[in-house]
Structure formats: C-alpha cells, structure tokens
Amino acid sequence: MIKISAELKRKNNSNENTQEPETKSKKQKEESYALSKTIFPSFKEPEQTETVSKIPTKRKYTRSLTPKQNKKQNEASPNSQRRQELIKELTNKNNLMNTPTIGTENPVPQRLVMTNESCLTESTQMNEPQKPGNNSTKNLRQISHTSNEDDAVVIEHELELKYRRKKYSANIYGDGIKYFTINIHERLRELKRCVGIENPLLIQPQFDDQNNQIWLKLEVNNYDDYLKLKSSWPCDSFKTGVKVEILPPPLVINILQVDKNIQIDPSSESLNELKKRYGLFNIERVFIGNEKPTNKLRASVTSIQEYINLIKNGLYMNETSKKHHVSPNIVYAKICGCCGSLQHKEKECNSFKRCLRCGLTSHNSENCISEKPTCVNCGAMHHTNSDFCEKAAEKTFQMNEYTLEILTGERVIPDNRSILRKKSIDNQVNLIHHGRIGPETLSDNLLNNKIEDLVKRVNLVEQTVSNHQIEIDEHDIICLQETWLEDMSKKDNLIYVDNKIIVMNKARRIAKKGRASGGMAFILDKRLKYTSKFYSERIGTLTLGNLTIVNVHLHHYDGSETAKFNFDIQLSQIQEIVEQHRQNKRQVVIVGDMNTDLAKDCYNTTKLKSYVFDNKMLLRDIYDPQLVDFTFKRKNSSLIKSWIDHIICYEKDYETIKSVKILTDIKNQSDHNCISFELSQKLISKESILKKNAVKNVTLNWTNKQIRHIYNNKIQPELEKIEKQLSQLNLTETRNNLKNNITKIINELSSTLINAAQSLKNELNYLREKKQKPIGGLKFKRWWDQNIQDIHNDLIDAYIEYRDSNFDKSKKYIFTEKKRLFRLQKRFNIQLLKNKHLNKINELFKLDKSKFWKRIKQAQQNNIKIDIDLEKIRIHYDELFNKNNAANGDPEGKIKLETFNRSYENHKFSYHLDASSIQDTINSLKNGKSIGIHGVSNEMLKYSVSTRLINIIKTLFENMINHQVMPYLFNLSIIKPLIKDPKKSSDDISNLRPVAVSDSLANLFEAILLKEVSKYHRDHELQFGFKAKSSCAHAIFTLQQTIKNSMYLGKWAYITAIDASKAFDKIDRNILWQKLITAQIHPAIIRSIINYYNESLMMVTNDNEYSVPFKTSIGVRQGGVLSPKLFSIYIEDLIIKVEELKAGIKIGDQTVSIILYADDIVV
Fold it and tell me: How many CA atoms lie within 13 Å of 478's alpha carbon, on the beta-carbon side?
C-alpha cells in the first residue's frame, strides 16, 4: 500500500484558518463544549472539572459539571444539531454508508471549558451565601488589594535593609530654592532643620533655563537618612515648602525577544500600562552602533522587589501577546582602544599607542610578530582585549557591585563569575596567571569542553532527526501547505531522510518585513517516478502513473467580495485541472486545507458543498471513524477548533482510498492535524530513475594568468601526496587489487582538482565581497576606468590652478573645459556599461570568430523540453548500442582475433609513454567543453600541469595499458538527447540526437591512445575527416575540381552521395579489432582499446533525471577523440576496393573515384 499524508506545517497561529472569533460569549462556549457531539451523535462527553482563577485574591474556586448539566448543554447547542444534519445530508446525497460514528475504544479527549465571571459569582455564593445586592465580593477585593500594598511596602523595606546602596538620591523642588543657590552652608542648615540630615554626599542646585526651573539634587550615604528624605517635610521647608522626588535604585533590565518591528512610543497606552503594572520607566530599544535595532528593550525598575520578580518570572506585553524573559543589564569593562588601559576611554587617552597583543609601543596589532601574547593590564599570556583577563573581570564586578549583590543574594546566579562571557575557563586562567599550568593545557581543556558541548548538541539533533525520520519515512508522499519558504536552495536541508526529496513552489512575499506568505510542497520517495506542476502558490499537482494528487490551500472567508471572488476562481481552477486529468483516465484525489468548516453556514461552505455534490464527489475523511473531530486547533486555546482539512475524491473511487485517519501527535508543532490515507500500489509505477543534482563546472576566469598561477600553486602540495601513493601500484599482486588502487588514485586526483578550484573560487568571492578601495587607487565603480581616472586627475589639477590664480577668468575657461570632458567621458562609459553584453560579443568577433559564432549558436539554441519518458529513451539507446549486425567479418579474421586474444589476454606488457607527448596532449585540450560524471574539466587539467601531474598520469596510464586493467566507471558516458528539428514533435524519439559527454580523464586517455595508434597507421589520402591539416573544405575543393574537369572535357560526371545512418553507432567491434590487428597496431594498444570498450557504460539524462547505467557492445564511443580514427580504419577497405575497380574521373595521372569526410561518402 502507498501511504499518503496531507499535512499542514504551520508553526504559528494563523487568523485566517477558522471562522470562530477570538472571544466567545457564554452561549458560544457551551456550543464549543458540546462540539464532540456535533459530528458524531453517538459520542458522549465525560464529566469535567472546571478551574476558575480569581486574579485579585489568587484564590481558586471549583465547580463540577454533573452529567445532567452536560446533557442540558448538549441539548441546548444548535451547533450540534446543525452538524448532525450536515452528516445526514452528506450521507443521503452520496448514499454510500450510514452516518459515521466515532470509535468507542478511544473516545474524544476531555475538553477544558473556560468559565466567565458569572461562574465565579455562582461558585462564591455556593461557599458563602450572599444577600441580593450584597457588595461583600467587591469589599473583599478592596481589602485584599490594600493588604497586598502593605505587604509590598514591608517587603521592599526589608530588601532595602538587606541590600544597602552606596548612595540614595532625591530631587527637591520648590519656589524658595532659588534663595539657597549661592551658599552651600545655608542649604545644609536648612536641610538639617527640615529633616535632620547633617552630612549629605551632595546638595547641588540644578538649573533648567529652557523651563526656567531650579531644584536641588540631594545624595545621602545611609539608609537612615534615606528614610528621613521619605518622611514628612515642614510646610516652610526652604521658605515656601518643597516637593521631594525619591529616585529609584540603579537597577536596569533587558526585555528579550521583542520583535524589531514593534515601535516603542512613550505616549502609547499599552506602554504606560506596562510601566504601571511592572514598575518600569525609561523603556527604550537597544541599538547596535546607534543604527541597527536589536530584539531587546532596556528599562529601569522602580524597586528591588519588582526587579527580582521580573528577573525570575519575566513579563507579558500587549504588543506581542506572549511572555518575555528578562535579564539583568550588565555593564562590562572596556579597554582603551589606544593603550589598552581599563581606567579611561579612548577619547580620553593621553598615552602612547600600544600593541593590544603583546603590549609594546613599537608597533601596532596588525604588524605584531610576537609568539607570546601579553596583557597590558594583568600581564597574563593573552590579548589585552581577551575575555580571559582577570583585571577586566574585577573591573566588571566593581561596575556592577550593587546588581551582583542582589542577584547572588536572591540566588538568581550562583556567584559573580556567572555574568562573565567566558565562565568555564576562569579558574584555569588563574592557574595560568600563577604559572601552575601552561597555555597548551588550557587549549586542551577548552577544546574538550567545546567537544562535550558539541556532543550534547549532536545527540539532541540526532534524536530530533530520528523522530523526524520516523514520521516522514512512514509515508511515501506528504502534501504540505503554507511552507513560508522563499529560498529554494534551502529546501534540501529541511528534511533528514535520505530516501526522500522535496518538490516545492516557493512562498510569495507580500511585504518587505515579516515572513513570506503561502508556499506548497510535496515530500515523496526518491524511487517514485513523478511529474509535478504548481499553478499558483495555493494549488499544485503531483502525477504518479494513473494517479493525480491535487494539493490545495483555499482562501478563507472574511465577508468581503474579494474573498468570494478568490474562492470562486480557485474552485474553477481546480475544476479545470481535475477535468484535464480525468480526460487522461487518471484517478484524481484532492487534499489540503479547504479553510471552511462544513458545519457552519457561510459562502465558502455553500460553494464547496455545491462543488462536491455537483461533481458526484465525497469528503472521504468523514466516512471513517476518527479519534478526534477537528483538524485545526488554535494554539493556546482549547475552544477554537474546526474540521477544515479534507480528502475529496469521486464516489466511484471510494473503495480505493482506505484507512483515512486524522493523526494527533504531540510531536506535531503545527496548529493543524495531519490526515493520512492509503492507496493501492498498482496506482503508482516505480521505475529505476535516479534523481541527481545537475553537474556544474566550477567556473573560474581561466583566461586570467594570475588565477591560473594561484590554482597551479594550490594544487601542487596535494599532487605531491598523490604521487607518493604511486609506489603502491608496483606492490600490487593481483589484477583486481591493482584495479581498485588505480580507481582510488583517480578518484583522489579528481577530488583534488575540483576542491582546489572550488577553494580558489570561494577565496575570490570572499575578496570580492570584502573589496575596499586602496588609498590613491581606482574607484570601485563599474564605469570607472583608467581613461576617466586620467581625465579626473587633469580636472583636479585645473581646479587647483584656477583656485590658486584667485579665480582668474582664463583659468576658469580651462577648468570648465576639463569638467565638460570629464562629464562626456562619464556618460560614454555608463552607456558602454549598459551595452556590456553587446560589447563582449563585438570584442569576441574581433579576437576569435569561431567562439563568436559558437556564442551566437548558444543564444539561438532551442530549449524545448523532451516529452518522452526517460525509461523509454534508455531502452531505445540500450537496444541501439547492443543490437548487433548480422555480419561478423570473414572467418579468417575471426580466427585471427581469437588467436590474438588468447595470446595476449594475460600478458604483461612493458609499453612506455612519452612524458612530453602527454604534456602536449594536455595542453591541446579545448576549453569550455562539457564535463563528465566526475566533474573534472579540461581547464583543471591544463592549468595544473606540472612534472608531478605528468608523472601521475603517465604512471596510471602505463599500468592500465601494461596490466590490461580499467578503473571502475572510467568509461562512463552521459547521453543527453537533443531535438534535431524544433518544428517536429517533441515526443518523437526518432527526432532525438544523442550527445555523449565523457569524463576529462577518459578523454585524455583516448587522446593518448590516438597518438599511439597514429604512430602505426596513417589515414588514406581520400579520407579528409578528422586528421591534421585536413578539413571539409579540402573535400569540397576536390569534388569541385573533379566536376570542373569533367565539364572542361565535355563529359558527364555521375556522382552518388551516401550518408551512412548511425555509422559510428553500428560499427561491429569484433570486425574493428580484426582490422586493428591487420593494420599491425602494437598489441598493447589494441588490448587497451579492447579493454576500454569492454568497460563501456552509458546513462541517459533528461531534465535533471538520470537513468540506470547500461553496457554497450557495438559502435564506438560518442564524442570520443579516438572514435573518428577507429571509424577511418574500419571503413578504409571500402576505399581500397573502390579504387581497385579503376572507375572514376581522371585528372591527369590521378583517378578520383571516392571522397570521404568521416561517414559522409561521395562516389
């Protein structure tokens, strides 16, 4: 059976997924309480106990609902009756089965029902009978509130005694203060007279010129004087009386995880309410560098009691509707950026600049070459700005002394060191400082601690991945709605199951801020052969054989005409998609979020029911017993639930869909439950199709000499390591072991070449991102070049002369002219930049016309998609490259081949390759060619060429030739079919041209074999194709001269043109080996070619799908550099036999009877 899950992965609440309001009346809550009977009449709700919390007194009252009360509630619920009528209506119209009933073994879980204020009054009356109109409840709240305030004052007094400050501050306001601003002794005498304070730390007048206000700032150093400040002052204090403002303790907190988009407006009502509720003031956003906002708010607290409560319990904000953690605001010690001191800031520094690494003044930190760092402050072996510094820690403790005293006293933190950024190494830093351990030991300890932390994290991730894998692996197909994912490159990192893939449509961003909206996806088994299409961000299809799954996420209904229009459009689109697939005789199943509860009357419900009934469909999920009667539940609320996700199918397909279940799993963090169902496996055909990421070449600017030089230097150390492994080849005894070792070395060589290119590309990208203009260098503007730089320099010089001449008119003319030239050049360069692509094409035409026309052909190349099944293409080419011809050559040649193979099959040759010839072959490789399955390009081989690389390749290829072994997957070609004629049908397999792409190392091996074969065989002079100093133009010239000569002699010329269809593909290899033996090619080379083709494999690719590899038994390799030479040898007997006929056209002493250009023949 194929298991399919319609799952909605939404991690936050969504207001659009329910038709129920946020707040409910008592009647609505009673309806929700009886929701279990609304769909299934046989369900009985068990007894429940309600808990009501009275906020002012924090006392709890309970009231149990009796079965009789439950019955009344269920009977009174119109929603229950409406849902029963709906089920009856659905079953009567579909006429498939009786009204569904819920399973009795696992009843619906109890639902918590929140009560309103009337419940509280009733429960209070049950415990303490009250007379009608009695205000005892109100009085109880007032008395409780007053007692709470008194308790708070006592607790705050005890905390102030426990945690005494170094100073207590207050501001004194009054009209008579202006008479006491001159003489401090008069202020002291008056203060002593008023409240008895004799020795204040500070009594200083403060002036506000803008508001024309004067007040006194007063500071005392003991709690007794602080209490005197808070006491009553005489009416004639400072002549006219005063108003005293007691300043709160210096306690600051950080409110964490507050969205950056929330504006902090001091005048807002919600912020004022937050201040009153939690005793806060001076609430502000924390910024990085005064520009970039963070997700933290900083606020001061009015009392120690509030400070402790906030640190321990956090707070709630109206703007976010969630709880926020609160942390103490710790001020860390900072060093001077100039000298490294902790005693002053960099702006106040008068000392010499020091190196912050070693502490010397002779150089700066960038030029420091000292091996041992030295701290300027503590003298320990670490950088001055390191978190290891004990002096910095002591300074931090000193700056936060009062805060730390409260935090440790209330056991919020175990000790002072808990606030440091580096907690785990403080004791070891002390040991280094005292010389007990060395920095190496510290490094080992730090590494071990880091490893332990990483192991814990890995174990946690592995557990999560294991749970995730089990959930996903249970189903072959999973349909997702509302993925919210914009970046398609990250989709492969979202699942942790190797045998699954994600097919998705990215979410659409509506606003610049916040998350994206929508997005759909399918998670399915890699082995499934499928086609997918997304019509919008809310509708997508997945086709598997004769089954089509339509994944939908319909618009919700908000009462607007726009919502009605969107819903109608989506239903029409679904109808069109379904009809299209039904015409192709496919079974169609619609799954997803319908965004409307069919038990409630609204526009969307009416339309959806009409669509289902009119098309003879049914809601398959309501016909199977379910453990729960909802698919959506708002988080943090047990009331708001609805059944809005469904499986829709045609009536005749009812039996094919089985085991439909609403899954309730606590691991599911979404607000939607998954719906799982099963289908027969015969509906979906599984093929041997591989999905693979497209092979992409590592693109570097290989024309840049500096890049080539850096790449060559980067690759040499790795080549040296590979070169040391070559000695293992001589120690290998068996041929299989030698084959394994050669394969291993070739794989390491390929990985080394690719990794070096990728590393260099990453470095160049990093430098490009961090690129900065050097002083005096060219500006980093794309239109700025050396020419405009010279004009700009002349402009500056002209302006200086104009200025130094006291703005003489003659100099002004020169300056104006220079400025005009600069502007003209600037406009010209910008215009050139706009036509950059055209300029490149023009330059390419001047430099290399062949590359120019190649670029034009690429631009004109058609990208028509091939509408043929990949497995069908594979079977076609498998037959093409394995169906042998009837003829097998003459018997003598067959005997000669058998004798040759028996003689040399196990023979060990001693053939040697020329190193200079290998180097010339590598240098002659063409750039820009397609890469094979291993990912090595010709450029990587060319620009890493060195003595080491030549030695490695020479040793590998000589062992392959002499020991007659071929590495695994060495001769593996990728066939990419291209459409010959775009005007013809794209599903015609005869309209395909197979283009084979091989690995660069295999092409290099063929090129070396070609040179070795050419030493023993020379092509016939009438074969113009694929040989040095010969081209198609020579063949055409020979044909033209032959025709002209016949016309000159007045004779008829009869010409037959022969195009051998699939000539390269139909070569009989046994006959080819016989002809190589007859041509007296060296046996080592012949055996190498035979072994090379015996290991010939091919795989077909189309639209990033790859077929399974298959072997080939006939033909020469498509795209191989050796193939034209082999074909020339194969067809050479035809030229000789035609010449023996002595027929043709005579030109002087020569007789032209046949002309060949590869497989194109003219007789």
Answer: 21
pLDDT digits (tens, 9 = 90+) for 832-846: 777 766 667 777 666
271 contacts 250 by C-beta, under 8 angstroms: no
Report the residue count for the chain. 1163
Residue 689 has pLDDT above 80, yes or no: no
pLDDT in tens, 486-534: 776 666 556 556 677 888 888 877 766 777 777 888 888 877 878 888 8
Whole-number Å distance between alpha carbons of 224 and 199:
12
The SS3 call for residue 868 is coil
Closest CA to 951 of 725, 1144, 691: 725
Full domain range(s) for residue 614: 475-679
Distance CA 552, CA 591 (A): 6
In this structure, is residue 1058 part of a structural domain? Answer: yes
Q: How far apart are CA 908 and CA 1082, in angstroms?
A: 13
Q: For residue 722, which of 948, 935, 566 has the smallest C-alpha distance?
A: 948
Alpha carbon distance 660, 650 (integer Å):
15
Q: Residues 590, 592, 594, 596: what is their CA dihedral angle, to the nearest 10 degrees?
A: 130
Whether the Cβ atoms of residue 326 and residue 315 lie closer than 8 Å to each other: yes
Nearest to 505 by CA among 531, 472, 532: 532
- Count: domains in the chain: 3
- Nearest 5°: CA angle at 1134, between 1133 and 1135? 90
pTM of the model: 0.43
Q: Does 398 fall in a domain?
A: no
Specify whether the CB–CB gap between 711 and 760 falls below 8 A: yes
Cα dihedral across residues 430, 433, 434, 436: positive or negative = positive
What one-character-per-residue DSSP string does 296-345 give?
EEEEEES-HHHHHHHHHH-EEETTTTEEE-EEE--------TTT--SSS-
Nearest 10 degrees: CA dihedral of 366, 369, 375, 376? Answer: -70
Burial class of residue 1136 (count of CB atoms within 10 Å of its CB; 0-12, 13-18, 19+): exposed
- In angstroms, the CA 486 to CA 494 distance is 13
CA-CA distance, 605 to 602, in Å (whole number)? 5
State whether 856 and 876 are in the same domain.
Answer: no
Strands of 579-657 (E only): list them: 587-593, 617-619, 632-633, 641-642, 645-650
Looking at the fold, whether 847 and 879 belong to one and the same domain comes out as no
Dist CA 376 CA 355 (whole Å): 9
> DSSP string covering 952-979, please?
HHHHHHHHHHHTT---TTTTEEEEEEEE
Domain membership of residue 1116 (yes or no) is yes
Sheet holding 658-663, edge to edge: 500-505, 520-525, 477-481, 2-8, 674-679, 658-663
Helical ranges in 931-1067 per DSSP H: 938-942, 947-962, 1000-1016, 1032-1049
The answer to whether residue 310 sits within a structural domain is no
Distances (CA, A) of 978 to 854, 863, 864, 927, 1059: 17, 9, 9, 22, 20
Please answer whether residues 70 and 47 qualify as being in contact, where contact means their C-beta atoms are separated by less than 8 angstroms: yes
- Mean pLDDT calculated for residue range 1068-1075: 87
pLDDT score recorded for residue 1101: 86
Verify that 804 and 852 share a domain, yes or no: yes
Helix (H) or strand (E) holding 1106: strand 1105-1107
Which segments within 239-314 are labelled E, that is strand? 243-246, 252-255, 280-288, 292-301
- Which of 679, 709, 743 lies at the terminal end of a domain, its last residue? 679
With contact defined as beta carbons under 8 Å apart, do 96 and 618 qualify?
Answer: yes
Distance, in Å, from the CA atom of 1100 to the CA atom of 993, rounded to the nearest integer, reads 12
Please tell me whether residue 478 adopts helix, strand or coil conformation: strand
Scan for tokens 């509506």, then name that residue: 510
| 448 has a pLDDT exceeding 50 | yes
Round to whole Å and give the CA distance between 125 and 133.
12
**Same domain assignment for residues 794 and 903:** no
